[in-house]
């Protein structure tokens, strides 16, 4: 009887641990939506689950000759992933006044941060936030978007205009140096393909190799 009771307790503990891990991995989602008709893309959305997986979608990604929706699966890694979810919870699941009040702030785009999970839900809209934590999340998510869009342009350039790859990679290098493009693991397979492509200019291949290795020089 004691052995059976022990097995039952062990099974219960395993079930609890599994449930906790499942909640950690997929229990909550943060969605960031951006809209600015003066930019390309004019609309995009990042959806990030707490296990680090997610999707990126834009309404009119930079496609040669036309504009059409673009979507890609993405990952976000710690410590950035942990930081984003920690801010969401410390900011009442974004049930706060994100927008700055008073003063003249130039239009920087309509932004929405939303949280949904077993522990709560909420959202807020803003152009610019006086809350430093929320503004930092905004900056980080825009930097992830910058990386994904750069990868999209590189993919198209490799198909249609390989001579433009060097300039695109040079721009990406500067953006990475400045922190305006982050989470490069999302485009690393493409960078490695470019680095190994003998039909691409040597300098472009070298730049792609540096970026794939997480370096800028």
Would you spell out the secondary-structure blueprint of this structure?
Elements: H1 2-26, E1 29-35, E2 43-49, E3 53-63, E4 66-75, H2 80-90, E5 110-117, E6 120-126, H3 132-160, H4 165-177, H5 188-195, H6 202-212
Antiparallel strand pairs: 1-2, 1-5, 2-3, 3-4, 5-6
| Average of per-residue pLDDT values | 87
* Bulk shape: elongated
How big a fraction of the residues is strand? Answer: 15-25%
The rounded distance between the terminal residues' Cα atoms is 67 Å
Most strands sheet: 6 strands, antiparallel
Helical fraction equals 40-55%
Would you report the number of β strands?
6
Tell me the radius of gyration: 21 Å
Order of helices and strands: HEEEEHEEHHHH
Count of DSSP-assigned helices: 6
Give the low-pLDDT segments.
Answer: 1-25
Strand order of the largest sheet: 4-3-2-1-5-6
Q: How many domains make up the 3D coordinates?
A: 1
Give me the secondary-structure category: alpha+beta
Features:
6 strands
Structure report:
Helix content is 45%, strand content 23%. The chain has one domain (28-212). The chain is built from 6 helices and 6 strands; from the N terminus they run αββββαββαααα. Strand 2 (43-49) and strand 3 (53-63) form a beta hairpin. The protein is an alpha+beta fold and 217 residues long. Mean pLDDT is 87; it is low at 1-25. It is elongated.
């Amino acid at each position: 009887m004691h052995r059976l009771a022990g097995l039952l307790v062990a099974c219960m503990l395993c079930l609890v641990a599994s449930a906790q891990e499942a909640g950690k991995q997929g229990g909550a989602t943060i969605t960031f939506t951006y809209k600015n008709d003066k930019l390309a893309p004019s609309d995009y959305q990042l959806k990030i689950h707490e296990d680090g997986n997610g999707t990126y979608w834009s309404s009119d990604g930079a496609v040669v000759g036309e504009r059409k929706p673009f979507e890609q699966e993405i990952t976000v890694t710690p410590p950035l992933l942990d930081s984003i979810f920690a801010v969401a919870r410390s900011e009442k699941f974004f049930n706060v006044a994100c927008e700055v009040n008073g003063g003249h702030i130039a239009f920087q785009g309509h932004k929405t941060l939303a949280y949904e999970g077993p522990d709560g839900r909420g959202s807020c809209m803003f152009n610019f936030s006086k809350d430093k934590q929320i503004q930092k999340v905004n900056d980080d998510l825009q930097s992830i978007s910058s990386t994904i869009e750069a990868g999209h342009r590189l993919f198209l350039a490799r198909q249609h205009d390989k001579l433009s790859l060097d300039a695109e990679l040079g721009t990406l290098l500067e953006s990475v140096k400045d922190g305006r493009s982050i989470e490069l693991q999302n485009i690393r397979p493409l960078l490695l393909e470019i680095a190994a492509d003998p039909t691409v200019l040597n300098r472009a291949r070298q730049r792609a190799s540096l970026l794939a290795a997480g370096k800028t020089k």
